[in-house]
Amino acid sequence: MEIVTTGIDGVLLIKPVIHGDARGYFVETWQQERYEAAGITLPFVQDNHSRSTYGVLRGLHFQKTRPQGKLVSVSLGSVFDVAVDIRPDSPTFRHWYGVELTQENQWQLWIAPGLAHGFVVTSEIAHFHYKCTDYYCPGDEGAYRWDDPAFGIDWPVAHPVLSEKDRQAPLLCPA
């Protein structure tokens, strides 16, 4: 596998080796020793799978006191996936990194605890997978608006489909 640094500490793009032939393909999506060698050493305690249609945007989400590290990937379709540095004392505070994760490229994005995360579906349908380093805690949820000018994310979908929670999410620096 190839590990690509992104310029944000704690965000790695992982390009696994795909073994394919006329029958299809095989890809190793998790192997503890290899991922530990890449610096992903926290244990995973929860796996999630979401299904969404074109234009659905989920994010920008985080947990306030029990931050989750996430290893995310797509098994069907494609998404534009984004990690945002919301750590005030980080040299890359408010910086974001985005990448298209697809069923064809089988790439993964590692998002360390303490960062915000979101994605928008760019295919007709997408199946999105998260390996998480802490449990989901509804009372600990945090979110920032997907279109927050403090981040300036260049989303590939102009008018995304949002949940009410994401529509009402606050700005990082309200006026």
Automatic annotation (TrEMBL):
Enzyme Commission (EC) number: 5.1.3.13
Site location (Participates in a stacking interaction with the thymidine ring of dTDP-4-oxo-6-deoxyglucose): Y136
EC main group: isomerase
GO MF annotation, one: dTDP-4-dehydrorhamnose 3,5-epimerase activity
Keyword Kinase: no
Gene Ontology BP annotations: dTDP-rhamnose biosynthetic process; polysaccharide biosynthetic process
One annotated Gene Ontology cellular component of this protein: cytosol
Highest taxon above the source species: Bacteria
This protein's UniProt keywords: Isomerase
Catalyzed reaction equations: dTDP-4-dehydro-6-deoxy-alpha-D-glucose = dTDP-4-dehydro-beta-L-rhamnose
Annotated pathway: Carbohydrate biosynthesis; dTDP-L-rhamnose biosynthesis
Active site, per annotation: H61 (proton acceptor), Y130 (proton donor)
Metal-binding found in the keyword field: no
Similarity annotation: Belongs to the dTDP-4-dehydrorhamnose 3,5-epimerase family.
Assembly and interaction partners: Homodimer.
Function description: Catalyzes the epimerization of the C3' and C5'positions of dTDP-6-deoxy-D-xylo-4-hexulose, forming dTDP-6-deoxy-L-lyxo-4-hexulose.
Protein's recorded name: dTDP-4-dehydrorhamnose 3,5-epimerase
Annotated source species: Candidatus Desulfovibrio intestinavium
Native organism taxonomy: Bacteria, Pseudomonadati, Thermodesulfobacteriota, Desulfovibrionia, Desulfovibrionales
Gene behind the chain: rfbC
